[in-house]
Fold:
Amino acid sequence: MKNIYRKFILKIFQSALMSFIILHIIPYIRFNFYYSDFRGWKYKRGYRLLEAGDIIVTKDKWKLTSYLIPGEFTHASLCLDKSPNSEFEIAEMTHTNFTKSTFYDLCREATRVRIIRCNDWDKYYIKNIIVPTCKSFKDVCYDTCFELGVKALYCSELIVQCDLEKRLIVNYEDIVGLGIPYISPTGISKAKNVKIIWDSDQEIKSKIN
Structure:
């Protein structure tokens, strides 16, 4: 019975209708008409610590995706560069496919942001493997079927597909219930060999004397 249910759910996700809903409806539903409460002082503190190769996981508690995606975080992205001369800093897979963003873009669309760093990604590996591989996915579309592989990518899958030597130790648990291996943003945040560099929820604004 369980296998029949999983096959049914997978069929739904593979349908053209579901693909349309995921790309053109769900990303725009937010249960709050006011601005995000993510403040500039938090952004500055996080940005000071950000480095190339860092993984950023985020969540907007008011978005529909927060109710649909299990776990502590609903989105993952990768920092490729922090140079002021760069066209972009962050690579992410969104409903607009491979998206070139900045740390500011992530913060303004989130209520919580966490920066994590893989202990086994050294600077050479990041510069010569992670970053070039990620940029090679610039024409890849968003994966609405959530199937592992580089033909199409979802947000957290982008991270693991850039890691050609599979140094990041993550759990491919099927928390979505599709009957296929799945890597979630929360799963990446709980990888065995990462450390938390910064978490906006742990920031307390300094008192002004």
About this structure: The domain at 2-202 is CATH 3.90.1720.10 (endopeptidase fold (from Nostoc punctiforme)).
